[in-house]
Amino acid sequence: MRQPFFFWKVLFILSLFLICVPQVSMATGMQPDSSLLLIQEKESGGSMNVTNTDNIPSLLYTQVINVDGEDDTIKLLPTQPVVRVEGGKTQQVRFILKTEKPLITEHLKRVIFEGIPPKIPGSNKIGITIRQNLPVLIHPEGLPERKDPWTLLTWHKEGNQLKVTNPGPYVVRLAQQFVTLPSKTQFDLGRTYLLPGQHITLSSASSLTADNEVRFVPVSRYGVQVSEFIASLN
């Protein structure tokens, strides 16, 4: 059966479009070599390797920001906030930790790595920038490492309210959504972390009197979800 003229016209236009569209590589701009920037107080800082996966040079812009509820007197400074990285090359970004007194608990910040490509020839515009926003964990000197800090969380109920507290010295990362058992009442923590000493109170539309457990999904320091954990709800 002969194809209608409209079909061939559309096919011709699409073929011209594909010929004219430039080839797009699978590069992702500036790519850190880890999902977490770990800073040890005993080393007064740390570092992260960042690779320019594009085939053109770009400026690597590095910025450290605080998360909600963190102590802003603890400073983490990149030694080179802006540096040129050639296409395909790797740059080590070093960070210096500055504190007013020795740390007692872990602290959490965020680091942003942003690649700024050169201007497009014949234009005042620059290419698309891609940001990588990673967590920063600052670990105190003398504090033992702990792989399961979520076991230290305490959960309390009163009527239709639930209070979760992190009494330990560790930053706890977890999925935002969790449920109380056996009612399977759903809650949203509104964040994916609890800082040391932090507590959050949430409300439910129904009473939690019959519930005695909480089921949630912990997250490792490198952002990997681990097996569900069930804690007592008192």
Automatic annotation (TrEMBL):
Record-linked InterPro entries: Ig-like_fold, PapD-like_sf, Periplasmic_pilus_chap, Pili_assmbl_chap_C_dom_sf, Pili_assmbl_chaperone_bac, Pili_assmbl_chaperone_C, Pili_assmbl_chaperone_N
Domain (Pili assembly chaperone C-terminal): residue spans on this chain: 164-226
UniProt keyword terms in alphabetical order: Chaperone, Periplasm, Signal
GO CC terms of this entry: outer membrane-bounded periplasmic space
Main localization category: periplasm
Residue intervals of the Pili assembly chaperone N-terminal domain: 29-143
Taxonomic superkingdom: Bacteria
Keyword Ribosomal protein: no
Entry annotated with the keyword Signal: yes
Short name of any one Pfam family annotated for the protein: PapD_C
Single GO biological process annotation from the record: cell wall organization
Annotated compartments: Periplasm
The family this protein is said to belong to: Belongs to the periplasmic pilus chaperone family.
NCBIfam families assigned: PRK09918.1
Protein name in the entry: Fimbria/pilus chaperone family protein
Species annotation: Citrobacter freundii
Organism placement in taxonomy: Bacteria, Pseudomonadati, Pseudomonadota, Gammaproteobacteria, Enterobacterales
